[in-house]
Amino acid sequence: MLTDPMIPGVIFLATGIASFFVYERLVKRQYHIAREVWEADGRPPGFAWAPPGTSVLRSWTRGMAYFRWIAQSPSWIKEDGTARTLQRYLRMLWLTACAAWLWGVILTLLS
After folding, report:
1. Which residues, in sequence order, are CB contacts of 80 under 8 Å at separation 6+?
2. Fewer beta carbons within 10 Å, N or C terminal of the chain?
3. What is the value of pTM for the model shown?
4. Residue 93 and residue 17: Cα distance in Å, rounded?
5. What are the pLDDT digits (tens) for 25-83?
6. Distance (Å, rounded) from C-alpha 56 to C-alpha 101?
């Protein structure tokens, strides 16, 4: 059962999509509680949400914020309990997606 390549694929897709929803909530949180930092970060949008004056097509700033928040905890996150919780979920989902991807690669190489 653990050798079925569908299992890591489903886990990868589910955690990847869930991480997009968590990122969306985190970037909205940044916009509402730390607007000046949001602007300094290049005004990153969510995947489906973009405040007035920005666009959901700004994928470069979105990607930069997404991976920065996985690797670091900016001061605005450290100072806000909700943001810390969202960042923890984002990291957990991202690591789970990476582990599932690696699991799928290993299964593919072994078969």
Report:
1. 29, 33
2. N
3. 0.90
4. 9
5. 999 999 999 999 999 999 999 988 888 878 777 788 999 999 999 999 999 999 999 99
6. 27
Q: Are 26 and 69 in contact (CB under 8 A)?
A: yes
CB-neighbour burial class of residue 72 (10 A; exposed 0-12, middle 13-18, buried 19+) = exposed
Residue pair 49/26 in contact (Cβ under 8 Å)? The answer is no
Alpha carbon distance 48, 24 (integer Å): 8
Where residue 85 falls among pLDDT bands split at 50, 70, 90?
very high
Query: Which residue bears the tokens 């990476």?
Result: 98
Structure tokens at 14: 């589910």
- Distance separating alpha carbons of residues 86 and 64, to the nearest angstrom: 17
CA distances from 56 to 9, 15, 48, 51, 80 (A): 27, 21, 6, 9, 25
Quick check: 62 and 47 in contact, CB under 8 A? yes
